[in-house]
Amino acid sequence: MTQNSPSGIQVIDRAAALLDAIARYPDPVSLKILAAETGLNVSTAHRILASLIHNRFVEKDSAGHYRLGLRLLQLGVRLHGNVDVRAIARPIMEDLRDRFGETVNLTIREGDAVVYIEKATPNRMIHVQQLIGSRAPLHVTAVGKLMLGAAGEAAIRAYAERTNLPAYTRNSITDLPRLIAACAQSLALGYALDDEEAEMDVGCIGVLVYDGTGNVSAGLSVSAPILRRRAEWIEDLMEAGKRLSLDLGYRPHPGPSAT
Amino acid sequence: MTQNSPSGIQVIDRAAALLDAIARYPDPVSLKILAAETGLNVSTAHRILASLIHNRFVEKDSAGHYRLGLRLLQLGVRLHGNVDVRAIARPIMEDLRDRFGETVNLTIREGDAVVYIEKATPNRMIHVQQLIGSRAPLHVTAVGKLMLGAAGEAAIRAYAERTNLPAYTRNSITDLPRLIAACAQSLALGYALDDEEAEMDVGCIGVLVYDGTGNVSAGLSVSAPILRRRAEWIEDLMEAGKRLSLDLGYRPHPGPSAT
DNA sequence: GAATGATTTTCGTATTATGAAAACATGTCT
DNA sequence: AGACATGTTTTCATAATACGAAAATCATTC
């Protein structure tokens, strides 16, 4: 069913579909299944997979089943721009995680969603798990609302238009005026809450991270079971956000030049 | 000059070459450069890049320059098999890092090299940096020598045949009998040293990690400036290696069945 | 040991990617 | 400003390329 719109080059679309299909399974997958899953002819799938193997995007185990290859890891960790943020954020995130004993996430905006690009999880039995690379709509996350707020009212309207503000829980904001107000208020306060808006039982606190050019470059957030979340964290989190922004070259006041 | 041998599908080879080219640059790159770098016609490069963008393997920034896309991260972190090891190893590695105050690496074997798949770096100004996804030949690394030892003498001979045991520093072992002896001894001791064999000034201690089926699944190592390396770490490291193996389902004695 | 089911290879064909060149941006210099 | 230079994007006729049906090979089951 993964019928993506064509992009100009058939093989690349097909190769991408195959990679996705492989990624969907927790264990190595057979050619048969992959061909069925992607709707490709087996011989075509086989040929493309052979090429992907040659390029180390895919590996074949001893049983002849396919799994993702190390090249993806190699390339994945080199994401430009983000690689810096991730590396710099890591220690700060670990510090927060130890302080709160909860999951700390780093996210960036991509289109109408936030994408999780790094996380620090505590050593507790129960904690919020966010898969790196997974996505969530802007209007149901703390960081997302801040990003919307920073983008301005017109952008929020456009976003609402495009997405129709679907509800994820009964707490999700699905009403444009309320969303605009919430985003503006969050931005003004410097932090945002997510009160079980994306998932029941989970609450977040988020802040924005700015880069050297003064643009929003990422979001930093804590996710915890709602009953364990503490308002005291807000201060620490805002502090960490500022710290991280400074580390990325952000200058608080648009200082009057000098080289 | 990155002239890879053809794999059966031209476009995929070319797309891979483009991704590599992008990854080589720390900042977003222009089409011109990418075309030159890969030897592709600009219009071809442009078309392939457009397709890669459509599939989110590549992004274009506001200046029209290309950088790697988030899909790579998404897929990269889902590497099957390794994902478990990485996740389980993370806390153990962080513990070791805090204990030693040095970089701790997790590696797996791929062909004739070890690949770094996870690391924990200390908060010190000077520490050993290993890029995730980067590679090093087996015979100049601690973990690599253990893996060779575990593979047996015949495999070491074959490895030597294939690679010719190139020297990386004046301490590298480039002589087959010595390598065989070193590997066997390391395996017997349960740990291996790398005394500035891969890079001057850097010393490592490595141990192996076994999975549930009793196979070598990864290697765990500390890398430090040679002057700071301590023999006392060996014990802790071996301990951690055993712990991690157990966590992965390894059973010390090949217990006599029972389901 | 035949039969079933999956993987791999082959090969003629038409679809698909190709790249030269032309249009379009963008920035630079006088 | 205007015109040049440089880089990007689109077009389009062409042939090289990827395609997939079917045959051959391999593995597994009954």
Automatic annotation (TrEMBL), chains A, B:
Gene Ontology MF, one: DNA-binding transcription factor activity
Biological process terms in GO annotation: negative regulation of DNA-templated transcription
UniProt cross-references to InterPro entries, sorted A to Z: GAF-like_dom_sf (IPR029016), HTH_MetabolicPath_Reg (IPR050707), Tscrpt_reg_IclR_C (IPR014757), Tscrpt_reg_IclR_N (IPR005471), WH-like_DNA-bd_sf (IPR036388), WH_DNA-bd_sf (IPR036390)
PROSITE patterns: HTH_ICLR (PS51077), ICLR_ED (PS51078)
Keywords assigned by UniProt, alphabetized: DNA-binding, Transcription, Transcription regulation
Xref: Pfam families: HTH_IclR (PF09339), IclR_C (PF01614)
SUPFAM superfamilies in the cross-refs: GAF domain-like (SSF55781), Winged helix' DNA-binding domain (SSF46785)
PANTHER family: HELIX-TURN-HELIX TRANSCRIPTIONAL REGULATOR, ICLR FAMILY, HTH-TYPE TRANSCRIPTIONAL REPRESSOR ALLR
Domain IclR-ED: 71-250
Superkingdom, natural source: Bacteria
Domain HTH iclR-type: 9-70
Organism: Thiorhodococcus drewsii AZ1
Protein name (database record): HTH-type transcriptional repressor AllR
Signal peptide positions (record): none
